[in-house]
Specification:
Length: about 140
């Protein structure tokens, strides 16, 4: 695996998973029912980290493919907006019971996070290929 992808996996994916992993560890050592195994807010943090990382990494590329950069940045901004709305809904669900179905929010966030992971992987795959071709020249 390329160096760029390994760095992405460690610095972005693993760091993004810290809230989920922490919750899992706390869930594992506490009595049943005290801590939920998965919270939408933890998955939202993961998705936000992936897209912020995409934007940051794309901004450091040369201007070789401006349209691809624009599409990727726009996609990341769209996902950040979606995560923000879902985060607001999770906060409302804490304050007003029955206002939002938290299970549906959780499923939406998980689906978005899987899509975000795929997008982020494809972005870093392309970036690593671009950098390999620049080094070869």
């Amino acid at each position: 695996m390329e160096n760029k992808k390994i760095k992405w996996l460690i610095y972005t994916v693993l760091v993004g998973l810290i809230p989920i992993i922490s919750r899992f560890l706390v869930w594992g050592v506490t009595q049943s029912g005290i801590v939920n195994l998965l919270a939408a807010s933890d998955v939202i943090a993961f998705g936000l980290i992936l897209h912020i990382s995409n934007i940051n990494e794309i901004e450091h590329l040369s201007d070789s493919d401006k349209s691809w950069k624009t599409i990727q940045n726009g996609t990341s901004i769209l996902f950040i907006a979606l995560y923000s709305v879902l985060f607001c809904l999770t906060m409302l669900s804490e304050g007003i019971s029955g206002f939002v179905d938290s299970q549906v929010i959780k499923l939406c966030v998980i689906a978005l996070a899987l899509i975000s992971f795929s997008i982020s992987f494809s972005v870093f795959h392309r970036i690593s290929n671009i950098q390999k071709s620049e080094v070869a020249q």
